[in-house]
Queue: 3 jobs
Job 1
Amino acid sequence: MNRINETLNKEQKLLSIYFTAGFPQLEDTVTILKQLEASGVDMIELGLPFSDPLADGPTIQESSTQALKNGMTTDKLFDQLKDIRQYIKVPLIVMGYFNPMMQYGVERFCQRCQEVGIDGLIIPDLPVEVYHEKYQELFQQYGLLNMFLITPQTPDERIRFIDKVSEGFIYIVSSAATTGAQSSFGNTQEAYFKRIEAMNLNAKLLVGFGISNAETYQAATAHSKGAIIGSAFIKNLEAKGVNSVQDFIRTIR
Amino acid sequence: MKTTYHANEKGYYGDFGGAFIPEMLYPNVEELRQNYLKITATADFKQEFDQLLKDYVGRPTPLYFAERLSKKYNTKIYLKREDLCHTGAHKINNTIGQILLAKRLGKNRIIAETGAGQHGVATATVCALMGIKCIVYMGELDIKRQAPNVARMKMLGAEVRPAQSGSKTLKDATNEAIRDWINNPVDTHYIIGSVVGPHPYPDMVARFQAVISEECKTQLQEAEGRDYPDHVIACVGGGSNAAGIYYHYLDDPRVNVIAVEAAGKGIDSGESAATSALGKEGIIHGSKTLLMQTADGQITEPYSISAGLDYPGVGPMHAHLYRSERAEFVSIPDQEAMDWGLSLSQMEGIIPAIETAHAFAILDERSFAPDDILLFNCSGRGDKDLETYIDYFKL
C-alpha cells in the first residue's frame, strides 16, 4: 500500500507540512525534511519551485523565486532526495506546477519520483479531466497518487467526479484565496467544511490554505482528517531558520 | 470534415490551448465558458456591441490603399486602419465585447493586466463608459516605463496596482490579475487583453477582434472586386490584432497568412521575443502553447523595443498556425522595426505603434508579385511610443 494511504488510515488527525525545496538555502532541503520527521509530522509536501506559481500567495511565490535564485532545478531536487528514504519514513509528496514537469518529461519525472521514494504529487494547474484522460495510468505505473483540490465554489457534481478519480486524499482549499491569505476561520468556512464532510466522500479530506496556528489547525481538523500548513511554516523558516522547525510544530499540536 | 484553424469546443487549436488552471479558477472560467457563446449570440448583445463599435470606437475603420508604398514595392498594399480606433489601437474591440459580457454575467468589478498600458487604457475606458469599478495590474517596471498610460488610466478612474513579484513585467501583472480573480470569484470579471489564457479566452477574444477581417471582406470587395487578399500580415505578441485580421481568412487556402514577431536584438542575442523560433511547448497562464522558457521549464523574460510584443508566450491559435505551417512566421529586429516606424510616417503620413511597424518590415524580407494584394493590420498608432522614437532617432 502507498505510504499516503497507510497514513490516511491511521486513527489520529494528520498534520502535513509544505515547504519550498531549496529555500532558504539551496542545501536546506534534506535538513528540513529530517527536522520535520523528528518533529512527528505525518506527511510532507515538497514544493518544486516555479517562476510563475499562479495559485500561490506572496510567501510561497517569494520562497520559490529565492529557491530558483539559489540554483534549484528539477534534477537538483532529485539529486538531493537520492538517499532520502534512509532517513524519512513519512509520506512525501511533490507539489509543483505542470510546466517544469512537462519540460522534464512527464514519464521521466514520474520515474525519478518513484526511484527516490516519492509517494504522490499535487499539481495545481493540471485539471482533473486532463489527468484522468492522459496521465492517470502513467502515474499508477510509477506508484504515484495524484491529489486534487476543491474550493468553496466547486460544484457538488464536480466534487463527486474528483472523488471518483482520487486515490489519495482530497485537498480542501479553505476559502476562495491563494495560499497564505487567511489568518483565522469564520462561520462561512466552518459551514463549508461541514458541507463537504456531509457528502461522505470516499477520499479522506485534508484542509489547506490559511492554516497558521493551533487555533486554525483545530478548526480545520474538526471536520476533516487533517490539515496542511505551508506559508506560515515558510515564514517561520525565514524568520527563525531551519533549527526552529521542531519548536514551530510544537506550537501547532 | 473541412480543415479549420479555429478552436474546437474544448478550446484546442490542434495540440494547443485548453484550460490548464488551478481548481480555484475553475468556477470563474467555467461560468464564462458556458455563457460566452450564448450571450454573444443574442440579438440584444449584438445590437449593443455593434452600436458601440460604430458610435464610440469609430468603426468601421477605413481600409486604405497605400499608394506610395505600393509603388515603391511594386505590389498592392492595403492598410486596415485600426490605429484610428478610439484609444489608438484595436485593443478596444475586445474590451467593449468583454465589458458587455461582464455586465450580462452580473459582474460589478473588472480586473485587467497590462504591459505597455494599451490594454489597460482600453479596459479603463470601457469601465468608465459603463460606470464599473476597474483595477489594472501592471508590472512595477512597466509603471515606471509607461508613465503617460498610467496617467491615462488614472484619469479614466481606474486603480493601477503594481505587480511586484517575479520580473515585475507583463507576465507578473497577468499572474497578479489571475490571483485577484482567485480571491474574488463571484463579483469580478477578468478582461484578458489578448488571445491568450485558458479557454474560452483565446477564442472569445479572437471573436471580438474578428470584426477587423469581417470589415476587410466588404471593403476589399468594393476596392478590388474580391473579398480576400493574397497575403494577410500582422505583428504577433500575444496575437490579438493578428487573430482579428486573420479570422475570416484562416480557413481560406487562397490567403497566405504572415505573422511577424519581434526579434528584439536578434534571435540569438538572448534578448528577443520571437516566441515561435525560441519557444517550446509548455503551459503559460493556463494555456498550452509555445513559450520562452529555460530547459528546466521556468518562464523567461522576453525582450523587444516594443512593449506590446514582449510576452513570453503566444496565443494557442498562433502556436497552431506555426506548427501546422498554415502561417509563415518571420521575426524582425528592433532596428528594422524602428526604421519602418519612420518610413511609414514619411511615406504615408501615418505614425505607427512600434508593434505595428514590425509587420511592415516584411516588405524588405521577401518579394511580392505586382498583382498581389497585401492586407496589413495597421493595429495601433505611435503616440504612445513617441518617447521611444525620440530617444532612438534623437528627434
Note: Residues 26-40 of chain B form the longest helix (15 residues).
Job 2
Amino acid sequence: MRRLRTLIAAGAMTIAGLTSTALAAGDAPLPPAQTWAHGGVNSFLSFFKGYDYASVQRGFQVYKEVCSACHSMHLLSYRNLHDIGFTEAEVKAIAAAQEINDGPNDQGEMFTRPGLPSDRFKNPFPNKQAAAAANGGKAPPDLSLIVKARAHHEDYIHALLTGYTDAPAGFELSPGANYNKYFPGHAIAMAQPLYDSGVTYTDGTAATIDQQAKDVTNFLAWAAEPKLEERRRVGMMVILFLVFFAGIMYAAKRRLWSEVH
Amino acid sequence: MAHAPQSNFENPVVNWIDQRLPIFTMMNKEYGSFPTPRNFNYFWNFGALAMFVLVTMIVSGIFLAMHYTNNTLYAFDSVERIMRDVNWGWMIRYIHANGASMFFIVVYIHIFRGIYYGSYKAPRELLWIFGVIILLLMMGTAFMGYVLPWGQMSFWGATVITNLFSAIPVVGESIVTLLWGGFSVDNPTLNRFFALHYLLPFVLLAVVVLHVAALHITGSNNPLGVEPKGPQDTLPFHPYYTTKDIFGLTVFLIFFASFVFFAPNLLGHPDNYIPADPLVTPAHIVPEWYFLPFYAILRSITFAISLPFTDVVLIPAKLGGVLAMFGSIAILFVLPWLDSSPVRSARFRPIFKWWVLLCLVPAFFMLGYAGGKPAEQPYVLIGQLGTVMYFAFFLLLPIIGRIEKPLPLPASIANPVLGGNAATAK
C-alpha cells in the first residue's frame, strides 16, 4: 500500500510539472477568472456541467451581427446550430439568409444561391488575401477553435472583448492599432467590437458589453468543443464502470492471493 | 509429431490445432504456468500497461488514419472533421492524443523500476537494450505523430527538431534536406512523417516481441533482485499475475479515462489548435511534455567547446547540445556495464538507492521543468544543473559500485516473503 501511495504521489508530481509548461508569453495581465455554466472547455472538475444554451444562442446572434463581418468560422455548418437549440425551420431560415457562391454548373458558370443547412458558415471574405488586404495586411483569425487555441480559454476571450481602454500615457500606439489591456503587447488591430446595446436581444436580456462578451464566448466555446457534454456524460459512465470493476478485480486478487501470502 | 509433445487438451479442436501448431501449449507455458517471482510489487504492472497502451495506440491510430487526410492543405481540417463529424471521432482522437502521454508516463515508470531494482544486470542486458530501442522508436513515432495535425506546434516543433540534424558536421545540411524532402518543412515532410508514423509502431511491436521473448528466457527480476531458487519462490503467471495485472490495468484506465474525458487538452498546447503558418513563429516553441527533459538537455549546452587557450572551436554549442541530448539516451545502452555492483536491487544498496532517488529522479523533474520554460535564467541554470546530475548519475556508477557495501542479501525470495515483514516493509 505504501508503495502504491508513492506511485500516486509520483504521478501527481508529474502532472503538476507538466501543466507548468510555458504558454502564452507577453506582459499582459492574467485574464480574470469568470464563472462559466459549462465550467470551461478545459476544466477538469466540471463533470456534470453543460452549456448555457440561451447564452450560446445569444452569442450566435452577437457573432452573426458583429464578429462575422470580419471573422470566418469555417469549421461550422449551419446544420450544427440545431445542436444549440434552433429548430430545423430556424436553421433553414438562418442558412437561406446567406448568398452562397456555388458552381460550376452544367454550363460551367459560377452562380449564387441561398444557403443550405449543409453549407459551412459563410466566409466574410472570398479568400485569405482579400481578408488580409481589408484588415491592414493580416487576416482576422478564424474563430472556430479560438477558445481552445488561446491560453486561459474562455477567460481570455472574455477579457479581450472587454479589455479595451485608452492607452496609458507614454504608450506608443501605431496608427490603426487599438489598446487592449489583455492582448499580448497591448496593441491590437481589431477595434473595440462590442458596445452597450450594440445588439438587441429578443429574450429581453440587457445587452451590456459584459453580457455580449459572455454570450459570444459561450458560443465560441461550444463551437470549439461541441462534444463537451457527450464527452463528460460518457466519461462519467466509463469512470463509474472502471471504479466498480477495479473493486471487483481488487476483491478477486485479494481472495486469490490470500492462499499464497 | 517428431518434435512436438503430444497435446492433452480436452477440447478436440484445440487439440487438433495444437498438435499441428502448438500455440496453445506455448501460451500455457509462457502465460499460464510461467513461473513468476512471487514477490512483485505494483511497479511490475507497468510492462503489461505499456503493452496495453501500445495496442490501444495502434488500434485507435488505424481508425484515425481512415479519416485523416495527409496533405498540408487538408490535414488540420480533416482532424477537426474527425472531432466533429466522425462517429465517436472525438473519443478516438482524444484516446490517441492522450494515449501518447500515457505511453510515456507508463514507460518512464517502467524504466525507473528497471533502474531502481537493477533489472538491466546480467543476464538481462539484452532485454534492457531492446527496451532502450523501444524508447527510441517511441520517441520517433510520437514526434512524427504530433506533426500530423499540422497545427502551429506541429509545424514549428518539426522545424526545430529536424533542424537539429544540421548541427552534424559536413553532412548535416544534406540530412535535413533529406528529412524534409525539400528546403523547408512542407507537404513532402508531412507525407513521409505520416508514412513513418504508420510504419514505426509495427517495428516497435516487433521489438516488443523480442523484449518479451528475452524476458521469458531470463525470467523476471523482482524487488529483492535475487533469482528464484525453486518452486517455493515463484507462482504461475495465471491466475496470480493475470488478476493482479488486470486490477492494475483498471486503476490505470481510471487515470487514462480522466484525461480523455475530462481534461483531454491539458497535456497539449493551445497553439496546436491554430493551423500551421510558416510565416508566424509562436512565442515559445515547446515540444510535447514527454520530450521536455531531453529538450532541456539540448538547450543546456549554451557554450562552445574550444581547444584550451585557443579560439579553435572543437564543438559548437548547437552540436554540443545535440550530442548531449542523444548521449542522454545512448548512455542507457551501456548502463549494464557502467554499474559495477553485483547486487541488483537498490533495497540492498545503501548508496545507490539514494543516488537514484536524490540524483536521477530530481534531475529528470528539473529537466522536465526547465524544458517547458523559455530559454532564460533561472531556467537555463536549472536545466544545466539537471543535465550535470543526469549524466553524473550514470558516470559515477562504476565508482559507487566499488565503494558501496551492500546489505546482506536474503537467502531466497520465499524466506523474507514468508518469514515476516523484515524485508518487505521497506
Note: Helices of chain A lie at 2-18, 53-65, 88-96, 128-133, 153-162, 209-224, 228-258.
Job 3
Amino acid sequence: MEGLRNDGRRWNELRRFHCQLSTSSTNSDGSSYIEQGFTKVLCNITGPAEPSSRQKVKQDSATVSCEVYFAAFSGTDRIKRGRNDKKVQELQTAIQQTFSSIILTHLFSRSEIAISIHILSQDGGTLAACINATTLALIDAGIPLKDYVCACTAGQSTSIFDSEGTSPDPWLDVNYLEESDIPSLTVATVGDSEKIVALTMENKVRIERLEGMIAVGVSGCAKVRGIMDKEVRRHGKEKLEARGE
Amino acid sequence: MPIQIIAPAPFVTAADEEDDEGGVRLDFDNEGDIAMDSDAPRRAGRQTGGIVTPGEVVTDDPQWMRGHGTYLCQSHESGSQSIVSSLAGTISKTNKLLSIRALKFRYVPEIGDLVVGRILEVQTKRWRVDIAAPHSATLLLSSINLPGGILRKRTSTDELQIRTFFSEGDLLVAEVQTLSNDGQASLHTRSLKYGKLRNGVFMMIDAGMVRRMKSHVLTMNTSNGGGEVDIYLGVNGYIYIAKHTTPLTESGGPEGKSVSITRLEEEASEAIYSNVNEEISPETRAEIARIACVIGALAKNGVKVDEEMVHLGYEAALEEFLQGMEWGGDGEMGRRVVEASLVKRREQ
C-alpha cells in the first residue's frame, strides 16, 4: 500500500500508547507501567530517602540514581545484560541526567531519589519508553517536577527518494524493524515548551534531514504529553473519588 | 512544514463498538492544523475534578503567594511571573497562599507525631531509626527510659550496653521531639506509652492514609476469644498490631500488686526492653491477622484509616466470615469489606 509503513501506520502516526500509574502497591513510593506498541516498561521510584551510600550524599540537593534492568526475554534473542553492560549504563546515565535537571532536587537535601526500571519487552524506542515511564512514576510518587518530560523517536527513511529530489517525510515512533533499518533519534522535551532535554542518535544521517526528524520527534512528544496528562488526571480523579466517600 | 501527529489507534476489541476518534485519520492532508492539540489540556485552563498536573500554570495573578508544590516561572513574552504546579494533586488555598497537595507523598515528620519505626543503625550515643521519611530519624540514648528509673543519670555503662535497649531491626513506637532545619526528626520514648514493640505484626501503608487523631494507640476488644489487641497507628504509615499488654501505670505492676515508684520503674524497664514474645494464643493471632487485613484493605481502596473505620471494618470482616492473612491482598474481598464498612458509617 502506498504511504504506509510495514506495520500499517502512516509517517506521522504513533503506536498504541498505554500507561498506568500506581502499578505496584508496596515497596515503592511511586510506580508506573507503559506500553508503546510492543515496548513494555515498568518503573519504580523510591525516595526521597536516606542515600544508600555515603558517596551519594549531596549537602544541598537530592541525588538522582537510576538502575535499568533488561529482562533476558525482552528482545528477539535471549541476552542477559549485566550491570556493567554498555547499553545498560548508557540508558542509566541518559535517564539520570535528564531527570536531575527536571526534578526540583533542591527541596530534598541529603537524600536520594532512586529510579528502577525494568524493561519487559523491546520493540524500538526503549529509551523513550523509559523516560515516559519515569515521568509518570515520579508524578505518582509526589516528587516535584518542573514539568512533564516526554520522549519520542523519529526516523528518516533513506531508501525512498521521489523524483523531485525532496526528502521523504520522517517517520514518527519507529518500531524495532524500522530502528534497525533506518537512522533514528530519540528526543525528550519538557512539557509543551518544545525545550529539548535529551537528544540521542546512534546512526549517521545527512545534516539537512536532521531538522525535520527533530521537528517530528518534538511534535510526537507533545502528543505523548497529552496522553500521559489525561491518564494522570483520570488516575487522580479516581483516587479523589475513593477518598471522598 | 506543518506537522500533524496522529494519535495512536486505540486497541479495539470485538466488543468495543465506539467509533474510534483517535484512529487513523484519512483526511489529514486536507485540513492543515486540526487535532494537533485537540486532547492536550490547555495550560492555565482549569480542568474539572480540581486536579492540577506538573507544569500547569495555576495562576499568573501577582496577588497570590506560592506555597508547597509550586514554583515561579518567568514567562518569556510578557515578563510576568506565574505560579506553576510541580505536583499532581489538589490546590489548597490558605488566605493568599497557594499550595498543591500531592495525591501520594512521603511522610514529613512534625513535632508531636506518634511514629512507629525500625532501628537501622546503632551508634555510640544514639540510634538511627527508619520512619519512612526522607531522612532517617535519630533517637538519643538520653531520650529513652533507662532501666532503674526515669530520673537516673546516663552513665558510660549505658553507652556500652546500648544494644541491650535497642539493636538493629527492633521496632519501636516513639514521638517526634524536635526537628532540625532540614527536616530530620529526633525521637523520644520518655513515656511508658512508648518503647519497644513485640507480640504482634508490623505492616506499612501510605503515610497519607492514616488520619491524624487525638490518640494513635487503639485498644480493641476482639471477638472469637481473641482478647484485647493494641493497634499502634503511626502517622508515618507504619502500623503495629499486637496482643494487649497491661500498661505499667502507677496503680501497679503486671501482677496488680502495688509497688513503690522506684520498684515499678525497675520492673517497667525490664519488661520494656525484652526481646521475647509472650505466649500468644491462636485465637489472638487470628484476630490480629484479621485487623491487619482490614487496615490493608482500607488503605488499598483509598479510605483513610482512623479509629472508627478500623472498628467498622473489623465488624464488616467478622460478618463476612473472612479468615487468615491472605484476603487483605485479594482485591475483591477487601473491597467488599470496605464497602460494607462505609455503608455502616453512613448509617450512623
Note: The longest strand of chain A covers residues 39-49.
